[in-house]
Target: NAD-dependent protein deacetylase
Amino acid sequence: MSSKIQKNYRRQEEDEIQKLTKQISKISIKTQAPTFESIARGISKGEYKKIIIMCGAGISVASGIPDFRSPKTGLYANLEKYNLPYPEAIFDISYFSEKPEPFFTLARELYPGNFEPTPVHHFFKLLEKKNVLKRVYTQNIDTLERCAGVNENKIVEAHGSFATASCQNCSEEYKAIDIKSTIMSGKIPYCKYCEKGIVKPDITFFGEQLAQKFWWHETDFPKADLLIVMGTSLQVEPFCDLIKNVPKSCHRLLINNVEVAVNRSSGYRKKTDMGFKFNEKSNVRDAKKIGDCQKSIKEFVDLIGWTKEFKKLMKKKN
Model:
């Protein structure tokens, strides 16, 4: 082989090596599980641009609203005064049709305007201001995401909310303010148009179809690069199954007072193996922060480096 041919061969070989090196450098190989701290750094560096939040009643407890399932303090554990056949009956459409009084008694306690957003709700707004919030999927009916200033189009109230109401007879639509005085006076609101139907807040009761907006998840979740799950037991279907709908490359962070939805090898839902893998060697995308979610979110904001803006946002809104 002549020296000229050898030089050309080496040059081609070097060119191929350079190309391969460039390709490899572009590949993000995730060999370690993320942490609460590393995800905060990632947000700070702009590595996450399509963040989805999944949240439940636990994020609103600090505002004075009880969660649903805590054994002693939860809503379902303190409904004796309503003489219900079973706790969930207060949100059962069949029971409501026969006896709406218990629900409206409870509605007076939970109605929007009685409670203020928590630091967690304000964090959602800050994510929106930073243009990294894809959507907030909330199980809550309290409208506190709206009260914190989060744009309505950024919120999916999976189980409906008090924000709007509808006549059960003619489907005439109402705003929350339209029926508030009637509910607060201890009366049942009836439709002023058909004069027959009860006007029920657009909360999704057991036995009703989920709001159409809920199905946005079919296009939202496949695009997410970070999923943050907060203040929820993840026990109610189909909401609880959404955590498996993000890409495998998407990091998932649980900020909760207890671990939930761990992989089936640890007892999660038998029909899926897409639960959190916190304690498994194969984990490359799940992180957790167990404890009070309000304290945790303040720590998270500090780690991101948004403390000054966060305090200013909370002060402005309050």
About this structure: Confidence is low (pLDDT under 50) at residues 25-30, 265-272.
